[in-house]
Write a structure and sequence with these properties.
Its EC number is 2.7.2.16. By secondary structure, the protein is an alpha/beta fold. The chain has helices at about 20-30, 35-50, 60-75, 75-90, 105-115, 125-135, 165-190, 210, 225-240, 245-250, 255-270, 280-295, and strands at about 5-10, 15-20, 55-60, 95-100, 120-125, 195-200, 215-225, 275. The chain binds adenosine-5'-diphosphate and (2R)-2,3-diphosphoglyceric acid. Adenosine-5'-diphosphate binds next to helix 5, helix 9 and helix 12.
């Protein structure tokens, strides 16, 4: 059977690969089409190309055909697929930074977003901190060995009575871990790999301006205005079978965590970083993708996102 070839271009170099229903179906499921429907739809596209006698098609033309047929079927999915494609077409690697107080959902959302965008690299700032702990001793940098919301306990200099020691400790802690976060961003930019970096140490104003001001670096802050919903997330997290972090610790420090929540949100507003209320996963992801498309996506650019 004769294969239909798809012609694409990466870094100015043309390549050809056989049309795959599986690959097309996977990209449609990223736009939230039901997997069975996506496979049927991909088969219809293949049948259409065959009936037209196509044996070689440019990737952009294929996307246009898919979009046209999608618009006839489901406008909402067509829009999501279009947004996703316009992000995928950009030549620069995409660095997405997701911050927010402990428990607001940065790791869950990072995973979902990376999946939707087809980004294969993801790291949590907790992991970066863990690596840093192996390099620097507790005596030299005690803050590194604390949690963001307990870092006040390792402050060497007493805080003035009028200031919030939780926030002073938090700032010290985040400032330290930011060095590792910046190293990961710099490496990703140098290597040209797309990555999602998430965690409480992504705080607006703490990461070098020369990095966060790049058009392919997007920062978000997640929030949960309702304290009870926030508390509930710790319960749901500790119910997960593999969860190893005791609920009690987070409940004991919940007041401190809420103070960091308010502080991070305030900094996001001050630094014009989008604040996304993480109630419903789909709404959160959609609003982030829409934002990334506006600042980074391009209708004209050709090429693939490097992931
Ligand atoms: N939008 C959401 N809706 C419902 N549950 C969520 C949502 N986002 C996260 N969760 C749940 O909340 C808990 C904490 O999320 P997690 O991603 O671990 O937070 P963080 O990494 O910010 O500490 C997890 O059990 C997760 O499944
Ligand atoms: O330092 C902190 O605030 C939390 C962040 O982790 P998340 O709750 O955001 O995953 O790490 P911990 O020391 O509790 O393991």
């Amino acid at each position: 059977m004769k294969l239909i070839m798809v012609e694409g271009e990466v870094s100015g170099k043309k390549y050809e690969e056989p049309f795959s229903k599986g690959v097309l179906a996977r990209s449609l499921t990223r736009a939230e089409m039901d997997p069975n429907k996506a496979y049927t739809f991909a088969s219809q596209i293949e049948a259409h190309l065959k009936s037209e006698g196509v044996d070689l098609i440019n990737l952009d033309d294929l996307i246009r055909i898919v979009l046209k047929k999608l618009r006839e079927e489901d406008k909402e999915i067509a829009e999501k697929y279009g947004l996703w494609k316009s992000i995928r077409k950009c030549k620069e690697p995409l660095i997405i930074l997701i911050g927010g107080a402990s428990g607001v959902g940065t790791s869950s959302i990072a995973f979902e977003l990376a999946n939707r965008l087809g980004i294969r690299n993801m790291i949590s700032t907790d992991m970066i901190r863990e690596v840093m702990r192996k390099i620097v001793s507790k005596e030299l940098l005690p803050t590194l060995y604390e949690s963001s919301y307990t870092a006040f306990s390792s402050l060497r200099i007493p805080t003035p009575p009028e200031s919030d020691e939780v926030l002073i400790g938090f700032r010290d802690h985040v400032d330290t871990v930011s060095v590792g976060v910046e190293a990961v961003i710099e490496r990703a930019l140098k290597e040209g790999i797309s990555i999602v970096i998430e965690g409480v140490h992504i705080v607006p104003g703490f990461i070098k301006e020369e990095l966060v001001s790049k058009s392919n670096v997007s920062m978000f802050v997640l929030t949960l205005q309702d304290e009870e919903i926030h508390k509930g997330r710790f319960y749901s997290r500790c119910r997960q079978m593999w969860a190893r972090r005791p609920l009690e610790r987070y409940m004991n420090y919940f007041g401190a965590i809420r103070r960091t929540h308010k502080y991070i949100e305030g900094l996001a507003i001050k630094n014009h970083v989008p604040v996304v209320e993480n109630i419903d996963v789909t709404t959160t992801i959609d609003s982030m993708i829409e934002h990334i498309t506006k600042t980074y996506g391009s209708e004209e650019d050709v090429g693939e996102i490097k992931s």
